[in-house]
Amino acid sequence: MTDVTGPDRARLYEELALESRRYLAAYVLFNQAVADHLGLHPTDVQCLSLLTAEPEPLTVRQIADRTGLTTGSATRLVDRLERGGYVTRTPDRQDRRRVLVTPVPERLARVTALWDDLGETWQTLLDDHSEDELRAITRHLRRAHDLGHTQIRRLRALPRPD
Amino acid sequence: MTDVTGPDRARLYEELALESRRYLAAYVLFNQAVADHLGLHPTDVQCLSLLTAEPEPLTVRQIADRTGLTTGSATRLVDRLERGGYVTRTPDRQDRRRVLVTPVPERLARVTALWDDLGETWQTLLDDHSEDELRAITRHLRRAHDLGHTQIRRLRALPRPD
DNA sequence: CCGAAATCACTGCGCGGCGCAGTGACTCGT
DNA sequence: ACGAGTCACTGCGCCGCGCAGTGATTTCGG
Questions:
Q1: CA–CA distance, B51 with B72 (Å, rounded to integer)
Q2: In a 3-state reduction of DSSP, which class is residue B99?
Q3: What pLDDT does residue B159 have?
Q4: Cα separation of A114 and A73, whole Å?
Q5: What 3-state DSSP class applies to B45?
Q6: Which GO terms describe its molecular function (chains A, B) (predicted)?
Q7: Would you say residue A39 has pLDDT above 60?
Q8: Is position A68 within any domain?
Q9: Which of residues 101-140 of B touch A (CB under 8 A)?
Q10: Nearest C-alpha of chain A: how many angstroms from B84?
Q11: Is the CB of residue A125 less than 8 Å from the CB of residue A141?
């Protein structure tokens, strides 16, 4: 077992924490820049990202949950995207209360083209990492993601300090 | 030199890209949850994070640049934080046009306490990574951060596709 | 030097995304 | 069959935000 109390290690933790904060701050700015460039809002871009990541269409509620919006705001979000031609609404045959939101590939081409272009450069970052390192990075991201959701549940359960 | 074209490696790239997206999506939700819990806006929390990360106070303009807001909106942001007692305004003696924004430690204690609590759990994630892995993760984050800023400059230089 | 230009924080104004609360349509459990 | 729960959707009002302009201060060119 590795020693988790060494002074080197403490410094590594601190560096990682600092880089994480900078990384996340940069991401927010980057996302904003992408949205500006496309003439959309960050939320809209985020939603398109969600839709393209999923193999099948999402319902309005699923979009609301994954973006942190209320269902009302999610309806408006889909309104904007539909008006812009990015998505179409389809009634769900299984449950007629639900509405499926399907992305329109042709309209999304411009967006994905931009992502692909930016992603290509991004991949070159990974080229001089070993496979073990890549696995370690991926593992850390996944576990941080999981912890994030755990913390969110904790925060929502906690009473508001006011 | 490692082979960067192998099928395993391509799969690792894809996994890492997917986990990154999930990680970043979770961060946005997490940040929102923290802000909700404190009765603040995500932007406000982000600003407090910036202020506490820096050893010396920032000017309104610096806050604007680092949050992606206009100076006008940054003024309003500082207004909110000042009204809430989180920061104080101090005129800059060197340049009398400028205003320095200084965090108020006592008022921020509650916020940092929450961060520390959440950060403690977060650190346990790192305990079963080797030091080499930690270095690899940190390096990746730093380079991704740098690339992000490069891409932002590219995006701003590009013409709007409209 | 002195006046023009740049930069700073700040302010009115209007837009629009968002949460809230309520509505009707639909599904499900008993 | 009927009530409870869930779905997407809709007015309404709030307020964060960008935009454009202002005055104060600094910087720079002739």
A1: 18
A2: strand
A3: 60
A4: 27
A5: helix
A6: DNA binding; DNA-binding transcription factor activity
A7: yes
A8: yes
A9: 110, 118-119, 121-123, 125-138, 140
A10: 12
A11: no
